[in-house]
């Protein structure tokens, strides 16, 4: 049980020493001069600013070039789509003109007759 009891430490008090302590005053806050820039500092700042400016310029140039190429691509895709449409119409006209009915009609208008001995099947 004695282990749980609070412990007290007693010290002898020196009666000759005064009870007041002398406290040292804090030193005044130091003032610092502004740091001077050396030539190396100016060169470093100039190089960093030049690099940032170059990256910004390249970014803008690349953006404009990308937009121009995108416009050209869209124009080319439009022309390709128009050509495909025209090709589809031409194929439709060719199929219509080479159908059996159209050929028989053309032959009848021009006085031609069908001779089955001269017909060869080339689709086989």
Comma- or semicolon-separated keywords:
124 residues, mainly alpha, 0% strand
How are the secondary structure elements laid out?
Layout: H1 39-97, H2 100-109
Structure summary:
The chain is mostly helical and 124 residues long. It has a domain at 39-113.
Structural description of this entry:
This protein has a domain at 39-113. The longest helix is centred in the middle third of the chain and has 59 residues, at 39-97. The protein has helices at 39-97, 100-109. The N and C termini lie far apart (116 Å). It is built from two helices and no strands. The chain is an all-alpha fold.
Query: Number of helical segments?
Result: 2
Secondary-structure content class: mainly alpha
Helix content: 55-70%
Round the Cα radius of gyration to an integer and report it. Answer: 51 Å
Order of helices and strands: HH
Uncertain parts: none
Biggest β-sheet: count, sense, barrel? none
Coarse shape:
rod-shaped
Number of strands: 0
Terminal Cα span: 116 Å
The chain-level mean pLDDT equals: 84
- Hey, roughly how much beta strand do the residues contain? under 5%
Keywords: Cell cycle, Cell division, Coiled coil, Membrane, Transmembrane, Transmembrane helix
Protein name: Protein required for the initiation of cell division
Organism: Oenococcus kitaharae DSM 17330
Transmembrane segments: 42-62
């Amino acid at each position: 049980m004695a282990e749980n009891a609070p412990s007290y430490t007693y010290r002898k008090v020196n009666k000759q020493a005064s009870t007041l302590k002398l406290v040292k005053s804090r030193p005044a806050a130091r003032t610092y001069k502004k740091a001077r820039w050396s030539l190396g500092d100016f060169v470093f700042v100039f190089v960093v600013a030049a690099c940032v400016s170059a990256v910004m310029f390249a970014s803008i140039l690349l953006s404009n070039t990308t937009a121009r190429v995108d416009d050209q691509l869209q124009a080319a895709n439009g022309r390709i789509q128009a050509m495909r449409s025209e090709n589809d119409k031409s194929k439709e006209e060719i199929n219509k003109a080479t159908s059996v009915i159209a050929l028989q009609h053309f032959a009848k208008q021009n006085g031609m007759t069908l001779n089955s001995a001269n017909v060869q099947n080339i689709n086989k």
